Amino acid sequence: MVIEPAGTRMRRVANKRVRILIADREGVFRLGLKKLFALEDDLRVVAQAENAGQVAGLAEKFNPDIYFIQSDIADEDSGALLRQLRKGTRPGRIVITTARPPADEGMEFVKRGASGVVPKSAEPNVFVKSARMVANGVMWLPKGPASSAAPSIAEVAAPVRPADTLTRREKSIVSCLMQGWRNREIAQHLTITEQTVKNHLRTIYDKVGVSDRLELVLYAIHHRMELPPPPAAAA
After folding, report:
1. Which end is more exposed in the chain, N or C (fewer Cβ atoms within 10 Å of the end residue's Cβ)?
2. In terms of domains, do 172 and 194 share one?
3. Do residues 117 and 109 make contact, with C-beta atoms less than 8 angstroms apart?
4. CA pseudo-torsion sign 202, 142, 111, 27
């Protein structure tokens, strides 16, 4: 569940990659999450850790924008890690990953300074969405009893429009679609593969809530999306 108070605009992450540190005791999970984020133009894993001590040391070295921290690691040393990260000279936002029912402990982590809670069993797109939302100041919480406390959390969150979550590359693809280009033409212009274009389109559809190219074009027109200038011609 995303907490988005009405009446304010999202604080956008200005045209840069979001720097991420992953902390988990399971190497397979760290590797999988790193590969997942590597598929995105705007997300970059800068460090990995397997305990609280490593997180603290790598935080000073890499200054991540977001920490994805396993709940067991966050609980080490009576939860001292979260307090330490929040008091750092350049504190990043914290997302807790948990194998336990997140609704049971989500609010507790938020009270301790976390900006989001994601179950480790979540679909891959949930991790990507949560990273982008949290990077833009939006609280990401699990569904359940925790939502009853939403009013008190909403004060620190900022609203986000689906179109504002698109990366520069994704907006370029939308701009090409507005010209009626096919995937092959888009791929040639952007110097990427057709499969990469398809991957980007699936992500765009998911972000803005449409199911095909026509709906995306209509969405862009209706919402007056700010897009890069259209290319003169396809190769």
Report:
1. C
2. yes
3. yes
4. negative
Residue span of the structural domain in which 72 resides: 2-154
Q: Which of 151, 153, 152 is nearest to 134 (CA)?
A: 153
Task: Using CA atoms of 149, 161, 212, 218 in order, give the dihedral in degrees to the nearest 10.
Answer: 140
Distances (CA, A) of 185 to 93, 166, 167, 179: 39, 21, 20, 11
Instruction: Give residue-wise pLDDT tens across range 162-196.
Output: 777 888 899 999 999 988 899 999 998 888 999 99
User: Which of 31-40, 104-113, 174-183, 220-229 shows the lowest per-residue confidence on average (mean pLDDT)?
Assistant: 104-113
* CA–CA gap between residue 100 and residue 119 (Å, rounded): 7
- Give residue for tokens 């990077």: 135
Can you give the CATH number for the domain in which 140 is found? 3.40.50.2300
- Distance, CA of 204 to CA of 161 (rounded, Å): 13
Write the pLDDT tens digit of every residue in 139-161. 887 665 444 444 333 333 444 56
